Amino acid sequence: DQQVKQNSPSLSVQEGRISILNCDYTNSMFDYFLWYKKYPAEGPTFLISISSIKDKNEDGRFTVFLNKSAKHLSLHIVPSQPGDSAVYFCAAGLAGGTSYGKLTFGQGTILTVHP
Amino acid sequence: EAQVTQNPRYLITVTGKKLTVTCSQNMNHEYMSWYRQDPGLGLRQIYYSMNVEVTDKGDVPEGYKVSRKEKRNFPLILESPSPNQTSLYFCASSFYSGVKVGQFFGPGTRLTVL
Fold it and tell me: Which chain B residues touch A91 with a CB distance below 8 Å?
């Protein structure tokens, strides 16, 4: 049962344009969501997170939007840069008690930003 | 520098030979986790730990053991490795503070079991 899904295996955008990466989930109990970027031969790099009580969180060029009714979140990168080319993972987790620390990841989306 | 370190980075071993992958973090985080990454499957959590001496199973714990005797260290133990445990392994440490949450990964350990 894939509770967190990234249905687009890849995305290609032009430098300077907006990149929109999508993630869907099935468990309405998730309390927080995270986005990561991963380059080959490196560990994932934490980008941005959002609590389920919010619908938007911004950090520089990165904005995450959460639509709880649709069980959907998206990561917007504006403007996109060639150095953003990487695999992007979304993840979801539960808060409270012993649930903290248990994360479920999507399969990842390969973003390619063309100069 | 805040970081998560893993050793070894690369390991080739044979079926049944016990091995340990070490993980250490210097950020004083309470939460630590182990993941494996396989093609087409993304990252799957093996075990996680909420604090010293407190661990719990993730999504794919079979064939693995962990221990958390100190806050900074969270070793992954394969008592009898099998070829289906050939994978890329990541250790991570996390913080949770109200609505703020973050997780930091180590560089990865590529394990091949022959």
Answer: 43, 103
Total of domains in chain A:
1
What is the Cα–Cα distance from B102 to A48, expressed in whole angstroms?
Answer: 8
Can you tell me the mean pLDDT for A90-115? 85
A49 reaches B (C-beta below 8 A): yes
Tokens describing residue B6: 């893993």
How confident is residue A63, by pLDDT bands cut at 50, 70 and 90? very high
Is residue A101 scored above 80 in pLDDT? no
Kindly report the CATH number assigned to the domain that includes residue A46: 2.60.40.10
pLDDT tens across the length of chain B (114 residues): 889 999 999 999 999 999 999 999 999 999 999 999 998 788 899 999 988 999 999 989 999 999 999 999 999 999 999 999 999 999 999 887 766 778 899 999 999 999
Q: What range does the domain containing A76 cover? A: 4-114
User: Per the CB < 8 Å rule, is B45 touching A102?
Assistant: yes
* Chain B contact present for A37, CB below 8 A: no
In angstroms and rounded to an integer, the radius of gyration of the C-alpha atoms of chain A is: 14
- Decide if B108 and A43 are in contact by the 8 Å CB cutoff: yes
> Tokens for A48?
């941005």
Residues of A in contact with B59 (CB under 8 A): 104
Q: Is B29 exposed, middle or buried (0-12, 13-18, 19+ CB in 10 A)?
A: buried
- The answer to whether residue A8 neighbours chain B at the CB level (below 8 Å) is no
